[in-house]
Design brief:
- By secondary structure, the chain is α+β, with helices and mostly antiparallel strands.
- It has a single domain, classed as Severin (3-Layer(aba) Sandwich).
- It has six helices and four strands.
- It has a four-stranded mixed β-sheet with strand order 1-2-3-4, with no helix packed on it.
- A hairpin with a 4-residue loop joins strand 2 and strand 3.
- The longest helix has 20 residues.
- The two termini are 21 Å apart.
């Protein structure tokens, strides 16, 4: 985490309302591999622990500032093809910051869910965007609400696991 990232987090915390700060300190981990494409509800979050991550699962982690999409290496080929347009998790371009717009119910549902979360967080972080505009001279390497793809066992998994708060202090 850079100095700019730390400054950004400290400033964000000072203006968060209680519900936003709860999500910041205890992120939501949402399983997407069994998502109901016919529902408009956000799936129930699970405990924020690496023990809950399945090799054949896909999870969205969000804390009001960061969005991570963790992809297990054994996710079904059909799921990967419907959402990412490739045949296996190993072929997913993790440098992308948005999902492909593929015309099928699963892809549309996942993209809609991510957009719903962004809208929820945008409403609660309006004051924060004003704060950032006051400090336009500061160059941030990070983008608020930008989707970060994390494949199981890749380098970024260490960053992702930093947000799994139930794993802290177990060493």
């Amino acid at each position: 985490m850079t100095i700019d990232d730390r400054w950004f987090a400290m400033q964000a915390i000072t203006i968060m309302d209680v519900p936003s700060s709860v999500v910041y300190f205890y992120p939501r981990l949402i399983p997407l591999h069994d998502i109901d494409v016919d529902s408009n509800e956000i799936p129930s979050p699970i405990r924020c622990s690496s023990e809950k991550l399945r090799d054949d699962g896909v999870y969205l982690l969000e804390n009001g500032i960061y969005l991570f999409l963790w992809i297990g290496l054994n996710v079904g080929m059909e799921w990967v093809q419907n959402v990412f347009g490739v045949h296996s998790a190993a072929q997913i371009d993790i440098d992308r910051t948005e999902l492909l717009e593929i015309d099928n119910p699963l892809s549309m549902r996942i993209r809609d869910l991510i957009e719903d979360i962004r809208i929820q967080r945008h409403r609660s972080m309006r004051l924060f965007s004003r704060l950032v505009s006051c400090f336009e001279f500061v160059q941030f390497e990070m983008n608020v609400f930008q989707l970060t793809l994390v494949r199981q066992r890749d380098k970024l998994e260490l960053v992702f696991k930093h947000f799994l708060v139930e794993d802290r202090g177990l060493d």
